[in-house]
From TrEMBL:
This is DUF4926 domain-containing protein. It comes from the Bacteria.
């Protein structure tokens, strides 16, 4: 993926880990991602990310809402 097309806050698919993440930072070689809705950041190579489909974006948001509900008493 072209580094110019990635924006902080956008959602991408980490193909290597098969995980959707929110872009936190982009360098010329690396993309720093975090699970949508919070969580620990991870780093992946720029060539391992691609734009997410609408379905993958929805799935990530539902997972974040469900995780938040489980944290509440």
């Amino acid at each position: 993926m072209d580094v110019d097309k990635l924006e902080v806050g956008s959602m991408v698919l980490d193909k290597r880990r098969d995980r959707v993440g929110e872009v936190m930072e982009v360098t010329t070689s690396w993309v720093y991602l975090r699970a949508f809705g919070g969580g620990r950041e991870w780093v992946t190579a720029l060539e391992d990310v691609e734009p997410v489909t609408v379905m993958a974006r929805l799935r990530a948001r539902v997972a974040a809402v469900n995780a938040e509900r489980q944290r509440r008493p």
